[in-house]
Amino acid sequence: MMLRAEFTTEPFEGEGEPPAHAVAARDCLRAAGLEPDFGPLGTSITGDRETLLPALARVVETVLNTGANRITLQVTVDGTEDDQV
Fold this sequence. Notes:
It comes from Saccharopolyspora oryzae. Pfam families: Thiamine_BP. Residues 6-83 form the Thiamine-binding protein domain. This is Thiamine-binding protein. This protein is 34% helix and 32% strand. It has 85 residues and is α+β, with helices and mostly antiparallel strands. A four-stranded antiparallel β-sheet has the order 2-3-1-4, with helices on one face. A hairpin with a 2-residue loop joins strand 2 (37-39) and strand 3. It is globular, with a radius of gyration of 13 Å. The model has no long low-confidence stretch (mean pLDDT 91).
């Protein structure tokens, strides 16, 4: 089963370099063999369930350890009809 996850980490730090917790999330996903779409307002990633769910658990732990005080996460089964609206 393929999943798509979208998440943001806070606090936002405005213009300039992304905050350490956002970079840590991206790097955690890359270490799991995934390639996230890393943007200024959040990160999205698609992967198989067996790879993505453990990687997301590591992301949550990592970002909390690097200064995040909020994580907003949405996980969707990729390819569902809701995605085609």
